[in-house]
Structures are given as structure tokens and as C-alpha cells.
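Cross-posting from the chemistry board since nobody answered there.

I work mostly on the small-molecule side, so proteins are not my area. We synthesized zinc ion and want a rough idea of how it might sit in this target. Sequence and SMILES are below. Is it possible to get a predicted 3D structure of the two together?
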Amino acid sequence: MSDPAAARIPLAERMPSLLDGRRLGLATAALAVLALLLWLAALQLPDGQLHVAFLDIGQGDAIFITAPDGRQVLVDGGPSPTQLAEALGQQMPFWDHSIDLVVLTHPDDDHMMGLIPLFDRYRVAQALTGRETLSAEEALFWRQAVEAAGVPLAVAEQGMQIALGGEAWLEVLHPGAALLCAAAAADNNCSVVLRLVHGETAFLLTGDLEAAGEQALLASGQPLAAQVLKVSHHGSGGGTTSEFLQAVAPHIAVIQVGSNNRFGHPASETLERLAAAGVQVLRTDQQGTIEIISNGRQLRVRTAKHPPQG
Ligand SMILES: [Zn+2]
């Protein structure tokens, strides 16, 4: 008998005897192409899950969402176009130059500046921001960039729902119609607040909301529960009140913050409130980009640096 190992030779290696030389060449090439396509497909989204990447872009917010069927949303762009381009390059395939929706939560530099050249670099299908940002002086260059690129700009209104496909959607929870922010355009409390839902899982993205905005949300009676809370205002002491935390009841809190930032974010009292509520805290200054993946029932966390503890 021959070597018993021969019986274990994969089918593909036994097949050549069945083919003539020319066909073998073509078949090998076809297999190689197929293998490459499968390999690319394995690396690529969409994969039927919701991916939320809290990008490591220094002191500021930038959140890149890939919906289960592949639609892409960017919420804020951080302070620097260079850092944003680099971080997005790690999330998107190199040939992908389109984004379905870009949201600006409010016109502060640490959320807005990275977005300004984005409208030249990517084909953006839709932009969304709060009513206050439409007239805020701070947002003039941002609005000009949106307009120059011919991107339609919609106003985020409480109650709006945006279907992302694959049973994922965004709910606009804030700002409401009659709110404290009418007079102060760039107020943190006017931040667009989004609840991203996929199946039984939810993410609450709070911009730079402070206690007054949290109170307005609590008073609105809208569902706030979310397994993942993007901690508002980089973990400053003025937000993430105990009452708000109780209503959201998150398992994971993500703080988007630059290391050794001049604001002293996150505040120790915010970290203490999160610890007291038993919430796992992930920070972009410590973990780098934080990606949370939802299959509609469970969450998985992937971090660029130091795996999270506990
Ligand atoms: Zn901010």
C-alpha cells in the first residue's frame, strides 16, 4: 500500500491528474482569484453586524458606524482632518470614498474641524445637524464645505428616525423643539443626541451634553436605555449625572478624550459616578480606537491598545 498520508492530500492537489496542462493553468488561476476574493471578503464589511468605532483622534469626538448591510455614518470628525483621515483609513477599504451620512452634533472645533475637508475627500450622500448649527457663526466654514460639495443638509429634530438597513436605525432624541439652546447657538446642551439601535442592543451618543441637556432628555420621556453610552463632553464633571446614568443603565461607557488634555478630562467625579454604577469604562486615550460590534443580541469589544479588563 502507498503512504497513508496520501489519503489526506486535499482534493485540490489530487485534481490535476484529471486535467490537461492548459486547463490546469486556467483552473489554478481561477482558484487563486477565488481565494483572493474570499480573503478580501473575509476582511471586508458588511458582515451583517453593526460596527461602531470610537476613533482615536485626540481630544474630540469622531464615531464611525458601519450598519449590518454596509451603510456608513460618521458622527463628528474630531479636531484634525489629518487624524480623521488616518483613523478612517483604518476602518474603510482603500477604494471606498463614500459615506452615507455625516452628523455634526454641535459646532465646537473638537467635533467639527476634522469634517471640513472631508466633504472634498469623500462623496457624502447626506449631512445632518441641529437647527442651531444652521445659523451658528462657528459653523460657517463647515456649512460652506457642505454646500460647496453639494451635500444635502437636513435638520436633526427630536423624533426623527433614520433607517440604516439590516434592522439598525438611528433615533434623534435631542434637541427638542422648545429648548434651552435657542439663544445660545453653540451650547453643549444643544448637541444632537442619537440612539443607535440594532436588535436588542443600543448605543447612546450624547455629543457634549451637560446636566441641563440630560434633564431635558429625562423629562422628554423617550427611551434612553443603552448598553453602550458615549460619555458626554469627554467625561467632564458637568455631565453624566447619577440620575442620567440610572436611566441609561449602560454596561460600557466610552470616553473620547486626548491624553494629557488641557481640560483635565475626564473628571475624577465622572469616573467615580461610572464606577459606582458598575459600568466598564473604555477611553480612547488609553485603548486607542475602540470598536464595539453588535450582532443584535450581544456586544463584542475590540480595542487598538490594552485589552479592557473585567
Ligand atoms: Zn467636545
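Reply from a structural biologist on the board:
Welcome over. Reading the output above for you: Residues 46-303 form a domain with the Metallo-beta-lactamase; Chain A fold (CATH 3.60.15.10). Confidence is low (pLDDT under 50) at residues 1-21. Happy to explain the C-alpha cell format if needed.
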